[in-house]
Structures are given as structure tokens and as C-alpha cells.
Design brief:
The complex is a heterodimer of chains A (277) and B (290). By secondary structure, chain A is mainly alpha-helical. Chain A has helices at residues 10-36, 41-49, 51-84, 90-98, 105-116, 123-128, 137-148, 150-163, 166-173, 178-207, 210-215, 226-235, 239-266. Chain A contains 13 helices and no strands. By secondary structure, chain B is an all-alpha fold. Chain B is globular.
């Protein structure tokens, strides 16, 4: 593709594009690693071995390991019902699933405070029964689940709609049970899209900041996830510490990006139409 | 429900069903899980968001809406988001066009880099941008040389919003540009159209829906953006305080009703923007023949 018809013009455009991407996008990424290693590798390692950093990593992994599987199961259930069956209200349901995309992360945290915070609807009840949700891990999990709810569903629904249900119908006609059909026919058909969705969902769950900052008590070593730990260190002017922790999340982002790009190139036909290259 | 779902079943004998008959099993389970999850995680919490502002009473709501700090924050968030989206439109179009039409070494790498703002968590982007654009940072120092204050000012917010919005425009325009029939452009060329005419009369109309949806997505994301903005913003009330930050401030003051009112306004506007997009997106899909 692409005979270059304006040879005099092309290098200039290319320079503008490379410059824009370099200044706007690559420079911030480079800064993360430059500052993280600015005092040498020992300082970097020490920053990550710090007990508060370790606790933050642990909490981040815990929160993601709860929210991502739940939203993956939800995504499969939503895609199965919306893509394989005809019922009125499908469009409304789709719009509701998309809602978290149009909510500020801060609002996704706020709604849980409105329910379970000290002045929330259920605040007095929870206080009476000595249950803590806001300023506790469960609040962080709820906020993370809200933010990441659409990710898997949005990858699976368009793909499964495209694929139709002929293969499943054939399997049922041949006597396969519901779970067998799902496991042997549907799942192999959508596995790459599922992986794609889980990947994006996980990256967002581990990197979420706004929603989590509203519901976390922000106690170092206890209720700080990795992004909150970064904020705390940065505000304390511990830049090496902040960027060392940030480099972990940037690394996660880069790995996610690489796998995502590979999936887009290699399994293009098995992803939802919007992801095909 | 006029057409019979299964040909061998006469429609008059079929009892009315909410859902069309299907041979596939598992609908009650899958639909039950979906509905329960969506209700618990989205609908129920949003009910609280929709109801709590009215605790203030109508005049209380009006007082919040006319409070100069609230007005300033909303104006700043929506204004800068619109501005950043407007700048990202030509920039994103240019990047998409270059990536699609030119072959050069490193094109795929450059292409993959466009997604970096999606991949970097917001807090990481926030501290990195601030470090770059603070007076001690490389770009901040350069800008200060010519007397421009970047970080800790509305300009800093604008830069952060530019950063997070760019991939939306590129990724919406790019597929359409790839499918775009070059023969149409060549026809215009042979008919004597100037480069300018080919761009404005041939290419832009074809790309307009995708460009529009990319810009709207960037806008909707920017309005609610928190992590990448608060570090660079300076956060001075009336001057550089964004609406999401004001929500956090109000929550810290236990003003739940005020916080939920601002949140409700933001959700309503972003949701409206995204609903518009899904209409336009349908047009894009038709144009792509999907």
C-alpha cells in the first residue's frame, strides 16, 4: 500500500509525527526509568525492597486477583446472553455495561462511599456491626471491579455476535450438554479475545488510581496499592522511590502492550472487529 | 416477535415469550449472572449517586451549581478537555495518515507506541509528565526560558489531557483510513483535484465519523481524568482545580451530597457524549462494511 505521491512533503510529515510521538508519548515513559535508576541500581532495588513497597505490591496483586476473574466470568456470562440470544432490552443492557467507561474514576470510587462510607446509606449499619468496607481492602476491590467491569465483556460481545451461534446449535443438536458446548465450542472460538480482554482488565486493575484513592484509607504498608504508594512517595519528594515503584507499573504496561500488539497481528481474525489490523 | 424463531413450530401455537426461542441452553444462568452483577456493581451504586444530591433540597442544589468554585472547576474540566480533543483531532489524523500511507523503517514500532498512554497507569503518567514539565524538568526548563509556565498551571493540565486523548483519535481514524479506497483518491487526482481539494472534499468527508467518535472518546475520557492531571495541575481553587479533584475535596469534608451532585453532572454529560458516539460508531461500521 501507499505510493508516496508527495516526496518533498513526506519527510516533513514524518518528522512532525516522530517529534510529536517522541515529545508527547515516549519522553514521559523514558523519564520513569531515568529517574528510577538515577541513583543507581542498589537504590532502585532498595526502594522496591522497602516493606511499604512490598505491602503495596502485595495488595495490588490481591485486588487484581479478585477483581479480574470476577469480571472475566461476568464478561463471559454477559456475552453468552447478549450475543447468543434475542431479547428486548439488549441495547439498554449494553449501554449499562459501558457506563463505567463514561464515569470518572473518582466517581466510580465515590459511589461506594455514598453507600458504605461513614455518612453513607449503610454507614450506620456497618458501624453497628463493626464491618469496614470504605478505607479497607473490600472497598478497594469494589472500586476496582466497577472501573474494570466492561473490559472483558466489550471484547467478547462483538466477536460472539459476529460468530453467531450455528456451531453451538450444531453441537446441541448432536447431543452435547450446555457446559460441553461452552467448553468445547465457544471457549476455543473466543480464547484470544478473552485473553485480550483479561489482559486489558488486569492492567487497568493494577494501575487504577482515581477510584482507589477515594475509597482507600491510604495508610502506608496497609491500605496503599502500588499507584497510591507512588503518590505517597512522590508527595514526600522521594522521587527515586516513587519512580522505582512506577517502573513496575510502566513495565506491566509495556508487557501488556507487547502481548496486545502481537495478538492484534497474529490472531486478528479472532478478535472483535475493532481490534483487527 | 412476529417472525417464528423455529420454522417447524407454527407461530400461533407458540406461547408468548419475552425472549425468542433458542436451541441453546444456559440463558437463565448467564442472564442471571449478568443482571445480578450489573445491578450490584453499577446500577445500585449509581442510584445513590442520582439520589443523594437532592438531600440538599432544590435551593441547596442551586447553591452548589452556582458556587463559583464548582462553576470554575466544571468550566476548567470541560473547557480544557474540549480544547485538548480539538488539538488531538488534526494531530491524530496526521499520525494515523502517516502510519497508514508511508512505509518506513520502525513504522510498526511507532504504531505500537501510540498506545502507550493507554498502557501507562494514570498516576505513573502524572508524575512523569510533572517531572518533565516542572521548572526543573527538561521541557519545563525550556518553556521557562521563553517565559511560559507549563506545570502547575492550566497549560500543564492541557498537556496531560493531550497525552491521554491522542490514542483515541489515532485508533478510531486508522482502520477507516486503511480501508479507504485509494482509487477514489486517484480518481479525484486524475479529474484534476488539487491536494487541498482531495483532502477536504474526498478524504475528510469519508473519515469524519471516525474522527468525530475519536474526538468524543478523547473528550469523555479527559473530563473525568484524575491521576495524570492532579500532579501537574497545581490544584489552586478557581484557577487550576479540576472537577474530579473538587469531588475528592468535598468528600474529605464529608459533603457527600455536594460531591455526588458534581459527580452526577459529569456522568450525565459524558454518558450523553458516549451515547452520541455509539450512534456515529454504527455509521462508521456501516462505512467499513462490518
Amino acid at each position: 500500500m501507499g505510493a508516496v505521491r508527495l516526496p518533498g512533503f513526506a519527510p516533513l510529515m514524518l518528522a512532525v509525527v516522530v517529534g510529536a510521538i517522541g515529545v508527547l508519548i515516549v519522553a514521559p515513559l523514558a523519564v520513569v526509568f531515568i529517574v528510577a535508576f538515577s541513583k543507581g541500581v542498589p537504590a532502585y532495588v532498595a526502594a522496591l525492597k522497602d516493606p511499604d513497597a512490598q505491602a503495596a505490591i502485595g495488595l495490588t496483586l490481591l485486588v487484581a486477583s479478585i477483581s479480574v476473574p470476577l469480571n472475566a466470568v461476568f464478561g463471559l456470562a454477559a456475552a453468552w446472553s447478549i450475543a447468543k440470544f434475542e431479547f428486548p432490552g439488549r441495547r439498554v443492557l449494553l449501554a449499562i455495561i459501558d457506563l463505567p467507561f463514561s464515569m470518572s474514576p473518582v466517581v466510580s470510587g465515590l459511589v461506594w462511599v455514598l453507600l458504605f462510607g461513614a455518612q453513607g446509606w449503610f454507614g450506620p449499619f456497618l458501624a453497628d456491626h463493626d464491618i469496614k468496607i470504605i478505607f479497607d481492602t473490600s472497598g478497594i476491590v469494589l472500586a476496582t471491579i466497577t472501573v474494570t467491569l466492561p473490559f472483558v465483556a466489550r471484547e467478547l460481545i462483538p466477536l460472539m455476535q459476529d460468530q453467531g451461534s450455528d456451531e453451538e446449535a450444531a453441537a446441541v443438536t448432536l447431543g452435547a450438554g450446555g457446559f460441553t458446548v461452552f467448553r468445547k465450542v465457544t471457549l476455543p472460538n473466543v480464547k484470544w479475545a478473552l485473553l485480550y480482554g483479561v489482559l486489558l482488565c488486569n492492567a487497568r486493575a493494577m494501575g487504577e488510581f482515581g477510584a482507589v484513592s477515594v475509597v482507600s484509607g491510604k495508610v502506608s504498608g496497609l491500605s496503599n496499592t502500588l499507584p497510591l504508594h507512588i503518590e505517597a512517595l512522590y508527595n514526600d519528594f522521594d522521587f527515586v522511590g516513587a519512580f522505582s515503584a512506577a517502573s513496575l507499573l510502566a513495565g506491566l504496561g509495556l508487557v501488556t502492550l507487547v502481548i496486545k500488539t502481537v495478538l492484534e497481528w497474529r490472531y486478528s481474525g479472532e478478535l472483535s472487529a475493532g481490534r483487527r489490523r | 416477535m412476529t417472525a417464528p424463531a423455529l420454522a417447524d413450530r407454527p407461530p400461533e401455537r407458540r406461547p408468548w415469550r419475552w425472549r425468542q426461542a433458542s436451541i441453546l441452553p444456559g440463558f437463565p444462568l448467564a442472564f442471571g449472572i449478568t443482571l445480578a452483577w450489573v445491578s450490584a456493581i453499577v446500577l445500585f451504586p449509581l442510584t445513590a449517586l442520582a439520589l443523594r444530591p437532592w438531600e440538599l433540597g432544590l435551593d441547596g442544589v442551586w447553591r452548589v451549581l452556582t458556587d463559583e468554585r464548582v462553576v470554575a472547576a466544571l468550566r476548567l474540566s470541560f473547557g480544557l478537555s474540549a480544547l485538548a480533543a480539538a488539538i488531538n483531532a488534526p494531530l491524530g489524523l496526521l499520525i494515523a495518515w502517516t502510519l497508514v500511507r508511508f512505509q518506513f523503517p520502525g513504522r510498526r514500532l511507532l504504531d505500537a507506541m501510540v498506545d502507550l498512554p493507554f498502557a501507562l497507569p494514570t498516576a505513573v503518567a502524572g508524575i512523569a509528565l510533572t517531572t518533565l514539565y516542572a521548572p526543573t524538568g527538561l521541557f519545563g526548563w525550556l518553556a521557562a526560558k521563553v517565559g511560559i509556565k507549563t506545570a502547575y498551571s492550566p497549560l500543564g493540565i492541557f498537556i496531560a489531557l493531550l497525552f491521554i486523548g491522542l490514542p483515541f483519535v489515532v485508533r478510531q481514524v486508522q482502520p477507516l483510513l486503511m480501508d479507504f479506497d485509494q482509487e477514489v483518491e486517484e480518481a479525484a487526482l486524475t479529474l484534476g483535484a488539487s491536494p487541498r481539494q482531495r483532502f477536504w472534499r474526498v478524504m475528510l468527508p469519508a473519515l469524519a465519523p471516525a474522527l468525530f467518535s475519536g474526538v468524543s472518546l478523547a473528550f469523555a475520557r479527559a473530563v473525568g481524568e484524575y491521576g495524570s492531571v492532579i500532579f501537574i495541575a497545581g490544584n489552586v481553587p478557581l484557577h487550576s482545580e479540576i472537577a474530579p479533584l473538587l469531588i475528592v475535596t468535598k468528600l474529605e469534608e464529608y459533603d457527600y451530597a455536594g460531591a455526588s451532585l458534581i459527580g452526577l453532572i459529569m456522568v450525565a454529560i459524558s454518558f450523553g457524549a458516549l451515547m452520541t458516539i455509539s450512534r456515529v460508531q454504527a455509521m462508521v461500521d456501516v462505512a467499513r462494511g462490518l
